[in-house]
Amino acid sequence: MEKQKAKASDEEEMEFKDCEGEEEKEEKIDISDEIERSKVGIMRALVEREDPSAKDVDDLMIRRFLRARDLDIEKASAMFLKYLSWKRTFVPKGFISEFEISAQLAHNKLCMQGLDKQGRPIVVAFGGRHKPTKGNLEEVKRFVVYGLEKICARMPKGQEKFVAIGDLEGWGYSNSDIRAYVASLSILQIVFVENKKLESTLLRDIDDSQLADIYGGKLPLAPIQDC
Question: pTM, whole model, 2 decimals?
Fold first, then answer.
């Protein structure tokens, strides 16, 4: 690709914006739930006292951490401050340049589409296009952050979720890369904290009598050879 051959200074750069646009920062975010609004205000005061950079984050971002910890201000604040510390260390310049992840971009394994009926951005990941890393897991992590920020940049105001489609056509043993998968998940757990509510998500679509007990259901986990 022509972009990948350009010098680093000519590369397209994207700021790390925590899923919020500049326009959104200038406007007050409306949170209709009175309890959530009150707790967001309390948590904001706490985290801003500990880390002044928290002032640059909008209320929806703080609410996301609160929801991930069942509105427990103390736990959510600790988690949020850990996130801010991680961001300063991992993205010191505030953005990930395409030059830093050129090897990952070369395979076109992550594509952005339109929006679903609920206004959520759609991203398609092609497992068959992934090539196992050769020791450079940091580039994989940066690629994940870059991709998430691209997705966030497409989110309409007030939207907090996106749709991911995993296309496994052509995927095989040669594409398997456990170390990269684990590295990617470590980033997702830091940035997209709400994804940790796995149990409630599964129970919404699966009856507890059919869900494995390790995920909050009543069915004992059964190895495939015992079925």
Answer: 0.63
